[in-house]
Amino acid sequence: xxxxxxxxxxxxxxxxxxxxxxxxxxRLIAPRSRLRLQTKTSKVIAAxxxxxxxxxxxxxxxxxxxxxxxxxxxxxxxSARG
Length: 82
What we know:
By secondary structure, the protein is mainly alpha-helical. It is built from two helices and two strands, in the order ββαα. The longest helix is centred in the middle third of the chain and has 30 residues, at about 20-50.
């Protein structure tokens, strides 16, 4: 026997749903969930956008750190060879 979909109310009552009714409810709920997630994400982006603007470039700092690290590695390799 196939299991039927159930809707559980906030009061704990269980309501059996037909497959068609389940699909209809799922269509109603799904876009709202995505919309809430997009809205929340947009708020986070808006709140932090430009937070570090005008300050030191973190990308440039990482590139400079990596260049220094590469130079140290090259010196170690040259001193190990000879």
